Amino acid sequence: MGDFMRQYWLPAAMSSELKADGDPMRLMLLGEKLIAFRDSSGRVGVMDHRCPHRCASLFLGRNEENGLRCVYHGWKFDADGNCVDMPSVPTHQDFKDKVKAKAYKAAERNGLIWVYMGDRKAAPPLPLIEPSLLPAHDMTVNFVQRSCNWLQGLEGDIDTSHFGFLHVGEKKVEDFDPDDMLRYTVLNRAPEYHVADSPWGTTYAAYRPAEEGGTYWRFANYMFPFWTQTPQGEFATHVGARAWVPMDDNNTMFVHLHWASAKPSVKPIKKDGTVLLHVNRVHDYQPNTTDWYGRWRLKRNEANDWGIDREAQRDGRIFTGINNIHLQDQAVTESMGPITDHAFEHLGPSDRMIARTRRRALQAARAFRDTGAAPPGVDDPNVFMQSRSGYFILKDGVDWRDAYAQQVGTAERPAPMPQAAE
Ligand code: FES
Ligand SMILES: [Fe+2]
């Protein structure tokens, strides 16, 4: 699975995290300790943290004049990993042309830094993940670290039946405005749904009866290798994607991209001022540190029981006692432990999307291992542009695939397509 993941570009940091000639940053990706820095010309370099001379950490390095200089013996490396200065040996014994730092390709688009850790000489194109094509001023980007395996985090996004409990377990139909489609998730907490493989991964469509011969649909996706699109938003304007980037086996960086000027997908406050949904897009972070695991950690975590309020849980104000949607998801998936023991699970009919996605990912990883053929979407980044999620109501009797094709055909496309291959 690690080799499989290396075939794809990974969203790794926000552009704003690296300043030209600023401090080198520790970056943990796919179990590798890396250093990221921005050189004097603005280029981003990402490389193994160990200096290829005698392995002192380049974290201690001096970011100066278009390169990172190791403080041990002064060797200097540019953003591509070339050794450009070797001042500790006499000039006639200089062998800097023979030394290279283990550097990975980095790319930047609309405020997001991507890293390619595969072994192709020419990296594949950046994936056309729709929200990542929006200009930086129109894209909301959130990073949040999660203390568990990436798949465990990801599976929360494709587990549709938890919504009616974890997030709105305390709600009654009367709590919602009559035009709020979310009320169907409370009206029927055990939806039926379809699941299928799709060119970008897997797709599900949960459905419930709506009024006057209509069906309330909620579509969501898994996209290779670690992306999801959740159903929480009106389909036509729901331009968003969520990446579960493995830092290592036990830690994940969640990267949430969203169309900033889309109309809000949920109405958290009712007209009379009562709180309807405990949404919190502004996360309560600990201060970032320079540690390998020091970026974008929440204040609420296992050590403080995610701030669970037992009184609110008991008196029915908040089903979980945990006050905000993201934190509710964070708490349940972290509470499973770093890597859950799948032998202990009992998957039910409501978990078909999870089972299908595990199988799809395993089959794709095995096919890559056995044939070496490029995994889905690596050379054809366009498949991701056909992937959309969200809810809508359609008259009864429309086949779910037709319903999807119809909605995706008329959906808004706010992001300009990139001009040339990158
Ligand atoms: S260890 Fe980096 S220059 Fe010697
Ligand atoms: Fe959730």
TrEMBL record:
| All residue ranges annotated as the Rieske domain in the record | 9-115
InterPro entries attached to this UniProt entry: Cholesterol_7-desaturase (IPR050584), LigXa_C (IPR045623), Rieske_2Fe-2S (IPR017941), Rieske_2Fe-2S_sf (IPR036922)
Example GO molecular function term? metal ion binding
Q: Which UniProt keywords apply?
A: 2Fe-2S, Iron, Iron-sulfur, Metal-binding, Oxidoreductase
Has the keyword Oxidoreductase been applied to this entry? yes
- What PANTHER family does the entry give? BLR4922 PROTEIN, IRON-SULFUR DOMAIN CONTAINING PROTEIN
What name does this protein carry? Rieske 2Fe-2S domain-containing protein
